[in-house]
Amino acid sequence: MNRVLAPIYPEVGAGGFTKFDGTVEFYARINALLEPGMEVVDLGAGRGCQFEDEVRYRRDLITIQGKVEKVIGLDVDPAVMKNQHVDERLTYDGGKMPLADGSADLIFCDWVLEHIENPGVFSSEIGRVLKSGGWFCARTPAKHSLIATASRVVPNRQHSSTLEKIQDGSRKAEDVFPAFYRLNTIGAVRAHFPAKKWENYSYTYSSEPSYHFGKTYVARLIAAVQYLKSPFGGESLLVFVRKL
């Protein structure tokens, strides 16, 4: 990553991340919400592939285990049972979560909302499981981002091979799932987490390009397009809603 982005973002030499790093942006805000006694749910935890990050600072940010009382890893994929970065591992069918009403202080999911087929059921379950005052936090591609637009053009069955090419081999097939983009706009978040029940602090954000075929000139081009698109919203949707 540094090899491709360093000519565009020289600051990567000081710590390994750019000033636009989306992982730093998302997890720094999650860390600001954490309290030692919390029970936290990592929804869509998977096998823990995010911890393969070569940058120590980002790994420290995404590590929630040890900062709170308990971290539960929940996923439809049984690979979650291999995740060593959570205290408890659970699978479910994508419908009702195997968690008690009002049991969680914070639920977060990273690159998951784009895979939600039924956002009504999903948001209802989030509301059921969270305590009053609890937070739901998510990072997902915005519906009209470059990657989401391209994803809707490429059939789901080809996503794995396509992502492997444009992310320069950094994305494994086992970490690619069908995408629907039904909960990927500020409007959709407001509709499924209405103001009478939720405080909404969501926003969009554009990080440095991660889909660049391993070519600096492609990253420069994508960064320029993102800049021109920025008045109409960022490439990622960062969801922060608090249950009343």
UniProtKB/TrEMBL annotation:
<dbReference type="Pfam" id="PF08241">
    <property type="entry name" value="Methyltransf_11"/>
</dbReference>
<keyword id="KW-0808">Transferase</keyword>
<protein>
    <submittedName>
        <fullName>Class I SAM-dependent methyltransferase</fullName>
    </submittedName>
</protein>
<dbReference type="InterPro" id="IPR013216">
    <property type="entry name" value="Methyltransf_11"/>
</dbReference>
<dbReference type="GO" id="GO:0032259">
    <property type="term" value="P:methylation"/>
</dbReference>
<dbReference type="GO" id="GO:0008757">
    <property type="term" value="F:S-adenosylmethionine-dependent methyltransferase activity"/>
</dbReference>
<keyword id="KW-0489">Methyltransferase</keyword>
<dbReference type="InterPro" id="IPR029063">
    <property type="entry name" value="SAM-dependent_MTases_sf"/>
</dbReference>
<feature type="domain" description="Methyltransferase type 11">
    <location>
        <begin position="66"/>
        <end position="137"/>
    </location>
</feature>
